[in-house]
Amino acid sequence: MASGVATVWLPVEDMGRAVKFYGETLGLTVKSEGDDWSELTTDGLTIGLNGREDTHDGATGGAVITFEPDIDLYDEIVRLTDAGVEFVGEVSNNPWGRIATFKDSEGNDLQLFEPPPS
């Protein structure tokens, strides 16, 4: 049985662009940066950015990372939209919380999550 998540790896086409997106746009801490591998951290989780193989045709499916913003969900959507992020569809309202879906700079799926009020 897994006791937690140690690292999430995401494939990227352009390492510099991806590090800028996760570091500057999303505000994660850049731990290390290289041509084929970079690491960022958020709330104790390491996110690895892995340079795609030349034989790969681009983002198609894969892992989804869900972030819980420090501020109101809609305020974070405005902040990210102002930074050039495009959201996919409307915010999904569910009994278990709200989800806003967007893409990173490399085409990977990301989400913002806000739990229901307690």
TrEMBL record:
Family matches, as InterPro entries: Anthracycline_SecMetBiosynth, Glyas_Bleomycin-R_OHBP_Dase, Glyas_Fos-R_dOase_dom, VOC_core
Domain of life where this protein originates: Bacteria
TM annotation in the entry: none
Domain VOC: 4-115
Protein name: VOC family protein
Origin species: Mycolicibacterium arenosum
